[in-house]
Specification:
Number of strands: 10
Largest sheet: 6 strands, mixed
Radius of gyration: 36 Å
Helix content: 55-70%
Number of helices: 21
Structural class: alpha/beta
Shape: elongated
């Protein structure tokens, strides 16, 4: 397989993915994507050795299977000869019968061995393709920007990377290999039967078009209904997960009856689909079996008359019946073949929609490593919008500031004002629309992402933790760091004393998403993770919101020791967290409406002073008064 088969073929503007349900996409996807199927086929044929063995084994197994009906017919004729001949002739007939039986067994064994080889190699190719696609998909998901993930549901990505990938992976074994087998079996049987009798051949094959058509229709319908069933079960799973997660709320508000009603309604919808699937499968199987037995009856009737008239032998009639029996199952698999092509086309379109997507945040081909001399961060007339073509939806407008090592910048403002967006622009999670951001005069769009994000560390309010030990969570950014650095970072985050009291200390396993820790402990662990990188720019994005004031003061005092080596940005709703900053920006509707030190802003008597008075009053909500909410697309505080 070449890298070109997986890499970007036609770059797609990085926006959200198609939100059409899988069942609906399959239902309306009547046209096969030939280029897509050829692309999958090239991936399979890239495994030259395996595909050659698989196809050769398929051809051999099919040919050996076609020998069997001929010997069955001979065996019948020899057996009949035992009844009507003399002793000497009977001995010859019995010898011939034993020889025929041996040949039937011999060809059956060969057919079985080659079928086993065909199945193994076909499945092996599928798993190799699955491995390659899985890596390509996961790599692309890792490279796509925050703007993409803001618009895409995680469950949809998981579905595409697992269920849809399976539909593509199985195309070689269930599509290509099966197509070769059907062509050889049906074509070879037709040729062999035509050599004996044209009329019986037409009668023997009369069920093929109808059964093939009916099988294809049924398989496509069953495929659509299976996808629909998955959607119905997905609703049930979501309801159950939500109910169990919020069981305390359900019980507290006596919502059991309401929840049961919702669950029952979703279960009834799933049951309707399941019963319809059973009805379609049973009726289709019955009709196909009826068509096959009608054709067999006609062959017996017309063939029997020919036997009576001496036109053919009983053995030749048995040969036709044996051919029909052999063809019955492959013909029914025409539906599976059609389904395989349709499934690969639909699933492949959904899978490659992600793999072929061009990340919006890209390194330039000649991007260089970030060279830090003074470590000065500058925002020069920075504008930002999620909808780049619209000037009316600016999240940030004309943001300017400069910050160097040893300096602290505070940012405050109402919810949705654009504070967190500033934090996300510095490590280039998003790109500015106008203006530029530089570090020591280097535009961050001109340097490598790895060197930039090594220099800039953002500690976010939502402290995501992995199901791993405390030590591994802290050292996530630098897994090879020594214990001394881990302990030092955790001391600065004021969590070391708590960890040492645990039975396993830093080896203690954290539950899923850190559920075994309190909100404040998770935030402190996240702070320690950010400090581990020893960044030149450290951004606290409301990352002490769940930490009590006394602990926050200790964290600040501990961080003060190394402040001379880095620039610090503190984004917070609590003025006590940032009033010590060298400069404070009050952001509203994406613009800086006030700026200065705490003393200067208090003397100004504006929004900042109003907020300070509000937070100084005991018993009141200390949040920032919310002005008209800007469109900040869930990434702002």
């Amino acid at each position: 397989m070449t890298s070109a088969d997986i890499d970007v073929r036609a770059p797609v503007v990085e926006e959200g993915l198609s939100q059409t349900p899988r069942a609906q996409q399959f239902e309306y996807g009547k046209k096969l994507e030939v280029k897509l199927l050829l692309r999958i086929g090239r991936m399979g044929f890239a495994h030259t050795g395996r595909i050659s063995v698989a196809l050769a084994a398929t051809v051999a197994a099919s040919i050996f299977q076609l020998f069997i009906p001929r010997y069955v017919g001979d065996a019948v004729d020899y057996a009949q000869g035992l009844l009507v001949t003399g002793i000497e002739s009977a001995e010859n007939a019995e010898s011939a019968l034993w020889s025929t039986a041996f040949m039937i067994i011999f060809f059956s064994v060969l057919r079985g061995l080659f079928t086993m080889l065909q199945n193994y190699q076909g499945e092996a190719i599928g798993h190799c393709i699955g491995y390659e696609l899985r890596l390509a998909f996961y790599e692309k998901v890792q490279s796509l920007s925050f703007g993409f993930h803001d618009k895409v549901h995680t469950g949809d990505l998981i579905t595409r990377g697992m269920l849809d990938l399976e539909g593509v992976r199985m195309f070689i074994s269930t599509g290509v290999v099966r197509l070769v087998m059907l062509i050889i079996l049906i074509g070879g049987a037709t040729i062999l039967m035509l050599k004996t009798d044209l009329t019986l051949t037409l009668l023997a094959l009369s069920f093929v078009p109808f059964v093939g058509w009916r099988s294809a229709i049924a398989r496509l319908k069953l495929r659509w209904m299976w996808l629909l069933m998955q959607e119905r079960l997905g609703v049930i799973t979501r309801l159950m997960e939500e109910n169990l997660t919020g069981i305390r709320v359900v019980r507290a508000f006596t919502g059991q009856t309401h929840e049961l009603r919702l669950f029952d309604k979703a279960s009834v919808e799933a049951l309707k689909v399941a019963l319809t699937r059973v009805r379609v499968r049973v009726s289709s199987t019955t009709i196909m079996s009826f068509a096959f037995f009608v054709a067999m009856t006609l062959v017996l009737w017309i063939g029997g008359l020919k036997v009576i008239d001496g036109q053919i032998s009983v053995g030749r009639l048995a040969e036709f019946l044996a051919f029909m029996t052999i063809l019955q199952m492959p013909v029914r698999q025409i539906g599976m073949l059609v389904n395989s092509f349709a499934r690969a086309s639909t699933c492949g379109a959904r899978l490659f929609e992600v793999i072929d997507r061009q990340p919006r945040i890209l390194e330039k081909p000649n991007a260089s490593e970030l060279v830090v001399s003074k470590g000065i961060l500058k925002f020069e007339n920075v504008d930002f919008s999620f909808a780049r073509e619209s000037n009316d939806s600016r999240i940030l407008s004309e943001i300017n500031f400069s910050l160097g090592p040893g300096e602290t910048l505070g940012i405050v403002g109402p919810p949705g004002s654009g504070k967190s967006t500033i934090a996300h622009l510095i490590p280039r999670f998003y790109d500015v629309v106008n203006g530029y951001i530089s570090i020591d005069g280097q535009d961050i769009r001109d340097v490598t992402l790895a060197s930039l994000r090594q220099f800039v560390s953002v500690v976010q309010q939502d402290s995501f933790l992995f199901t791993a030990s405390i030590e591994n969570n802290i050292a996530y950014g630098d897994p090879w760091s020594d214990d001394r650095r881990i302990t030092a970072a955790n001391r600065s985050a004021q969590l070391h004393d708590y960890v040492t009291q645990l039975p396993l200390g830093y080896g203690t396993l954290i539950g899923e998403r850190g559920v075994s820790l309190s909100g404040g402990q998770r935030q402190r662990l996240s702070i320690a993770r950010g400090l581990m990188l020893q960044p030149g720019v450290l951004v606290f994005d409301d990352s002490t919101a769940s930490v009590d004031a006394a602990t926050e003061q200790r964290i600040r005092a501990s961080l003060q020791k190394d402040n001379s080596k880095r620039a610090t940005i503190i984004i917070s709703h609590r003025l006590s967290s940032l009033m010590h900053a060298d400069e404070i920006l009050f952001i509203d509707k994406g613009k800086v409406v006030e700026r200065g030190t705490h003393k200067t802003l208090m003397a100004l008597g504006g929004r900042y002073q109003e907020l300070h008075k509000l937070q100084s009053q005991p018993g009141l909500d200390h949040g920032v008064p919310a002005g008209p909410r800007s469109k900040d697309n869930n990434v702002n505080s």
